[in-house]
Design a protein that fits this description.
The chain is globular. The strands form 6 sheets. Strands 5-4-3-8-11-12-2-13 form an 8-stranded mixed β-sheet. The chain has a two-stranded antiparallel ribbon with strand order 1-14. The chain has a two-stranded antiparallel ribbon with strand order 6-7. The protein folds into 2 domains: about 280 residues, Rossmann fold (3-Layer(aba) Sandwich); about 70 residues, Alpha-Beta Plaits (2-Layer Sandwich), CATH 3.30.70.20. The protein is of the alpha/beta class. β9 and β10 form a beta hairpin.
Length: about 450
């Protein structure tokens, strides 16, 4: 398949520009700021419908878009309670308001991002002001509110995360119920076993409340990625072990979306992250918006484009569209509200691999050669051991500082996600730096 390979017109509707995608936008280093099209891999240009090229390479067929979903957008200038509450009403209005989704007597589970124990100003977890506004809106519509998530690491870490994130206080103030994700229901998708928290499956309605952040492994975390928290505690470690590469892990995320399909997604695009997200190592960034949709795939498609990612770059979003779990074609998605809120400006984003679109068997050797390794800032480490608890392959021995078995490490960066001090960051080896590869 040479650099001039063109997809048939029935794949794209834009045969003249439908070519295999390349990653040509990043500057040197782990993180890159978006810039005009420059260096190309094998002279290959990007296509408006790059997810079609991805489907061709992966042997998938692209389903026809069955509907045109709506993504509603609104600006929110501050984190004040009244301002956020008004913004919530505004963003839900084009979708029919909360009353369209909630009827009296319904049990409604709010699924925030509660990755780890982090204060709201670190922009790691869904902001408590938004959770409070959504809670009150559901209650006003007659629903009973449950708030649930499972932070990374053992279940014993959950109480600290609830407290530090401010969500425990919100639950107490609003009379809502915090539900632990302890009891599970077993399901199998594509030959993989999943243990989904029962409260998620038993609720009458799941409202997904993701946080707008970058992600060192998956590039972006939003509506789809947030649902991974429906898997309790260290069971997430088992899936990271089974799927160490970003292609396989992206498939895991899409499987979870298939099992946990929220009725409504409201994204916290207030104080989010850029840089080495999604944990405390990320850089807080004021996006100043809320976004909502009944289609989490469409919402992620709109937000990743606004951040600067190109079609197909964020693999779990592209895969979800190809599997018919939502719409990942930006041209088929309607946006309503204040479109100017998507003018985020220049962001510091993790670098994608140019071989993302290669089949997993071909990408595996390249991934091993350029695999991420955790880099520890010893002066920031407090020796809490959270990184060791989260490691899916037990490659970390706790201590001050902890020690890392880099030969055993699979490069999933769970340790960096959960570090409360942001003391762990991604490190690319020399080969990856020389050839412009790596996360």
């Amino acid at each position: 398949m040479g650099p001039g390979f063109e997809l048939p017109s029935y794949w794209t509707g834009h045969a003249k520009c439908a070519r295999i995608p390349s990653w040509s936008h990043c500057s040197d280093g782990f993180l890159g700021r978006r810039r005009p099209l420059g260096r190309q891999i094998a002279g290959v240009a990007w296509a408006p419908r790059a997810q079609d090229a991805y489907a061709l390479l992966m042997g998938l067929s692209r389903p026809q878009d069955k509907h045109s979903p709506t993504v509603s957008l609104t600006a929110c200038e501050t984190l004040g309670r009244e301002v956020v509450a008004e913004a919530l009403v505004s963003v839900l209005a084009p979708l029919g308001g909360m009353g369209r989704f909630v009827s009296p007597g319904m049990q409604v589970l709010l699924k925030p991002n509660l990755l780890t124990a982090a204060a709201p100003d670190q922009a790691v977890t869904t902001h408590p002001t938004l959770v409070e506004a959504v809670t009150k809106s559901v209650q006003e519509a007659g629903g009973t509110v449950l708030i649930g998530d499972s932070p990374a690491g053992p279940l014993k870490n959950a109480p600290r995360a609830w407290h530090k994130s401010g969500l425990r206080e919100i639950a107490a103030r609003t009379g809502s119920t915090m539900v632990p994700f302890e009891e599970v229901s077993w399901h199998s998708v594509n030959g993989t076993d999943y243990f989904i928290a029962r409260p998620v499956l038993e609720a009458d309605l799941v409202i997904n409340l993701p946080k707008l952040k970058t992600h060192a492994l998956t590039l972006y975390t939003g509506a789809i990625k947030n649902l991974f928290g429906a898997i309790p505690g260290t069971r997430k470690r088992e899936l990271h072990f089974q799927a160490p590469g970003v292609q396989d892990f992206s498939s895991i995320l899409v499987d979870v979306l298939e099992l946990v399909q929220p009725g409504l997604t409201i994204m916290d695009g207030l104080l989010g992250q850029e840089g080495n997200g999604p944990g405390s190592g990320g850089t807080p960034h004021w996006y100043g918006c809320l976004a909502a949709s009944t289609d989490p795939v469409a919402l992620d498609t709109v937000m990743t484009e606004a951040m600067g990612y190109r079609p197909g770059e964020v693999l779990h979003v592209a895969q979800a569209g190809l599997r018919g779990l939502g719409v990942a074609d930006r041209e088929a998605i309607s946006t309503q509200g204040d479109g100017q809120v998507l003018e985020f400006g220049e962001l510091q984003l993790p670098r994608p691999h140019w071989y993302f679109c290669a089949p997993a068997w071909a990408a595996a050797p390249l991934r091993r050669l350029t695999k991420l390794r955790p880099s520890l800032a010893g002066d920031a480490c407090i020796g809490c051991g959270t990184c060791a608890e989260a490691c899916p392959v037990d490659a970390i021995t706790p201590g001050l500082p902890p020690t890392f078995d880099l030969d055993r490490c699979i490069g999933c960066l769970c340790c960096a996600e959960v570090c409360p001090e942001g003391a762990i960051s991604p490190h690319r080896n020399l080969l990856a730096q020389l050839i412009g590869m790596g996360y």
